[in-house]
Amino acid sequence: MATPKDLPDVGGFIRDLRRNAKISLRQLAEQAGVSNPYLSQIERGLRKPSAEVLQQLASALRVSTPAMYLRAGLLDDKEGHGVLAAIAVDADLTMAQKQSLSQIYETFRRENTRLAEAQAEAEAAQAEAGAAQAADQPASQAADLANVAATGPTTVGGTPTEAVLESVAVTEAGTAPAPGSTSIPQKKKAADAAEEETS
């Protein structure tokens, strides 16, 4: 993987992203809410953009803000943002592919953090329960809890990866109504019908 020294400066990074997206300098400046000359100076390395401008540029270029901050030297690479930066500069990927990969990567990281927290809570609860309760609990039940904490949610007969990918698909498509729930327009129609019946 490329190190920050191997990667172009933030201005070159922005220019490469803009060119890959086939957006003119004027269009990007307009979308990001900055002046055309100011953006030109940023791309040529004559100006260092603020965090706010970097956020606006990241939004206009549809890349993650942490990747933009990393390239500008505002973040270190301890949190895995180098992966996001590498995805963002890969010329072989389309913008949609870069967005999808970034979302999946961030989803996996969040899921791993959640699982680590759940496992730590389970271990703490088990330690509090003491040896007496541990002896009373069936071994298979303890193994099931440890398995869920280690592997995360699964679909019926599925794998943990499938469950995570399903959550990404739901995130991209939006949430679906809960089974048996009715939408607000349907509730309003039902309320109106009930009101007409009583009058």
How is this structure best described in words?
This protein is mainly alpha-helical. It has 2 domains: 83 residues, 434 Repressor (Amino-terminal Domain) (Orthogonal Bundle); 76 residues. The chain has 10 helices and no strands. Helix 2 crosses helix 3, helix 2 packs across helix 4 and helix 4 crosses helix 5. The longest helix is centred in the middle third of the chain and has 42 residues. The N terminus is likely disordered. It holds the Pfam family HTH_3. InterPro entries: Cro/C1-type_HTH (IPR001387), Lambda_DNA-bd_dom_sf (IPR010982), TransReg_Diox_bact_type (IPR050807).
- Termini separation comes to 73 Å
What is the N-to-C order of secondary-structure elements (H for helix, E for strand)? Answer: HHHHHHHHHH
CATH H-level superfamily of the largest domain: lambda repressor-like DNA-binding domains
Characterize the largest beta sheet: strand count, sense, and whether it forms a barrel: none
**According to CATH, what is the class of the largest domain?**
Mainly Alpha
- Spans of 5+ residues with little confidence (pLDDT < 50)? 1-7
- In the CATH hierarchy, the third-tier topology of the largest domain is known as 434 Repressor (Amino-terminal Domain)
Number of domains: 2
> What do the pLDDT scores average to?
73
Q: Which range does the strand content fall in?
A: under 5%
Question: What is the global morphology?
Answer: flat
Estimated helix fraction? 55-70%
Number of strands: 0
State the secondary-structure class.
mainly alpha
The CATH architecture name of the largest domain reads Orthogonal Bundle
**What's the number of helices?**
10
Rg, alpha carbons: 25 Å
